[in-house]
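Final report, results section. Input specification for complex C-07:
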Amino acid sequence: MSELLTPSQTVGPYFAMRLPWADGPFVVPEGAPGAITIIGRLYDGAGNVIPDGLIETWQADPDGRFAHPDDPRGPVPGGYKAFRGFGRAQTELDGSFKIVTLKPGPLPFGDGQVEAPHIDVSVFARGMLDRSVTRIYFPDEAELNEADPVLRAVPAQRRSTLIAAAVADGLLRFDVRMQGDQETVFFDL
Amino acid sequence: MTVSEQRAPGRGLVVPETGELALPTYAKPGPGNHPPLDYPGYKSTALRHPKQPLVLLPHRLTEVTGPLLGDSLITMQDADLTTQHAGEPQGQRIIVFGQVRDSGGRPVPDTLIEIWQTNAAGRYRHSREHHPAPLDPNFDGIGRAITDAGGRYRFVTIQPGSYPWGNHYNAWRPAHIHFSLFGRAFTQRLVTQMYFQGDPLLAYDPIYQSVPDEKARERMVGQFSLEDTQPEWALAYKFDIVLRGREASVFEEAHA
Ligand SMILES: [Fe+3]
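Structure output:
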């Protein structure tokens, strides 16, 4: 590595002037075939909601593929046109956020291993000098979750913090806790 | 290791012998390059940083890809914060420009940059902002741009002001512009702030000082450029932004 990186700084209290987009939470348009909704709340170490946070999501499509040059496979032709892969939601005064998306497919990991369907998540807020990175896994994928190489590296008693809870058909809950007994697992990227 | 190339146009590589994907890995930031998540000088970090050890996330498909947000999002006016209203905003007109590249020196083209800042008086246009400085009806303080093929960008804006904040007695933020960048991969996502050369408040600002390495800190300071200053019109500040670079993939090593 030759050059120093530009350091990270907090998004501060006023990012909402620029960063939220009207369609930010919609990785696919609401009502798209197969759309699921993920709701959750962001909590600080005192158990209070964080009302000035930003949640971003990035994920594969339902075939486990990316429309990106570094996925050598690319999307299946004619795949998921309205699917952006990226979601961005500001937390509300009650700390809540919502993302509307399609469930990603499983992905090749290398060495013949398979990654369970997952969504990468970045958490930003005032008081965070860098983002915190976590992942959302799915409750109906017990077998793939069991074999997932990333989940397997997480201490067993903490894995549940990464698995969304089924609330209703097409509705999941994923809370993010920065600290405390149920602190969400965060990753060193 | 010998591998023959099997490559769709403009795409990454599949190693035919094994069917494995040859994915890049992104270099880790050096020690002291990024601020610690727990920094007592910035009080709000106390309840908002993870306390448990972080778990290593290998760079696989989800991490080496990222949103490629096209210029459909952008209009010309987005990069000129002084022409978003009928009248001209108050304050010193400035040009903020630079190059986005990775730590290997490669330009990062076609990447979205989003910025937000105070007006000349140090006031943000935000409902939860109560600093008793005047709003400017001709200034919103928000901009967007996409880097060109050489990773370059350029904004025209107004010199932002300093503003007080509640972190400690007589706390003032140095003038700054907030920057948000995507890069080409999830690993490259960066939110930072650009400061101004010679600002006396830098020495007292815990957010700026939270970056341990002095040289890294100085990377956040826009440099005044007389050469790029436009006579009779606007001062220019150069702010290059360096994102995490790719380490050689297995394939590239094999052919180096
Ligand atoms: Fe600010």
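Residues A 12, 14; B 173, 176, 178 surround fe (iii) ion (CB under 6 Å). Chain B touches chain A through 92 residues (CB under 8 Å). This concludes the modelling results for the funded period.
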